[in-house]
Design brief:
The chain contains nine helices and nine strands. β7, α7 and β8 (about 220-225) form a beta-alpha-beta unit. A nine-stranded mixed sheet has the order 1-2-4-3-5-6-7-8-9, with helices on both faces. α2 (about 75-85) crosses α3. The protein is about 35% helix and about 20% strand. It is α/β, with parallel strands linked by helices.
Length: about 260
């Protein structure tokens, strides 16, 4: 079976947008929000779909249609929650990658009642000064996303106009690197959360993971060894092993109580 063949593509109306998604698998629902590069299926999606009903949503403005209507990251979170509810889900696991991790945080804060657990994959909700989304040539983007770009299959070419539009949308919505209001609200989020960073992340310093660990009262922090920002693509097996174990066990995850686990 060809890569991605398990997934079916469909769309749904929510918040005045037609939202595209890819879905595969059976089991507990796992909703995924992509990063600044848009929706792209990875080997990790394929592996996760063997144990979960994986639903990868495309956020408005990251596909062919432009999005000038969404004004804030909170608005985008509200739209994505509406999309999940329109799919008939009343309880689900939520996973957000990079920019999608910021949206996921706001979804959790707005509708904690819907979430069973959350995975933040190299999230960009808390960033150091001067951090920027990846841009430039495909080679330049790859150098920022991966610890070893030479080992990663070359991604399909992206229309430069679409890439520029995505970048502009992310820059418009993502807000400041340290949002005091968001961080204060995260302190009260009673939800099992797994935060993951690659040890060689060149986009967001992995040390930012410790900030999430301090803020989120029921969180675990895991560093994936020898991986860059795009964990799902660069270390899919290690990523899925950790995520699957966390979602199955949540409260019992990492029983040793260590603050940080480095996954080799």
């Amino acid at each position: 079976m060809a890569f991605g063949a398990r997934f079916r593509e469909a769309s749904i109306e929510a918040g005045g947008f037609r939202i595209r998604y890819q879905e595969a698998g059976e089991g507990p629902a796992l909703v995924h929000l992509h990063g600044a590069g848009g929706l792209r299926l990875t080997p990790a999606h394929e592996l996760l779909s063997r144990a979960f009903r994986v639903i990868a949503l495309e956020m408005p403005g990251f596909g062919n249609a432009e999005n000038q209507r969404t004004q804030t990251i909170q608005d985008l979170a509200t739209t994505m929650t509406a999309a999940v509810c329109a799919l008939g889900l009343t309880r689900f696991n939520l996973m957000g990658t990079s920019f999608g991790g910021t949206v996921a945080c706001w979804m959790a804060l707005q509708r904690r009642d819907l979430l069973a657990a959350m995975v933040l994959d190299a999230p960009s909700a808390i960033r150091s000064e001067g951090s920027e989304p990846p841009s430039g040539s495909p080679e330049e983007v790859a150098r920022r996303l991966y610890a070893h770009p030479e080992r990663v299959p070359f991604a399909p070419a992206v229309d430069p106009v679409l890439a520029e539009r995505r970048l502009a949308l992310v820059q418009r919505l993502r807000g400041s690197g340290r949002d005091a209001g968001l961080e204060e609200r995260l302190r009260g989020l009673r939800l099992p959360v797994l935060v993951m960073f690659g040890t060689q992340d060149a986009m967001i310093p992995p040390a930012m993971g410790r900030v999430y660990k301090e803020l989120l009262p029921n969180s675990h922090l895991m560093f994936v060894y020898d991986a860059g920002h795009a964990l799902m693509i660069e270390r899919p097996e290690a990523f899925v092993e950790a995520v699957g174990d966390f979602l199955r066990r949540t409260e019992a995850f990492v029983i040793g109580q260590s603050r940080t686990v480095v996954l080799p």
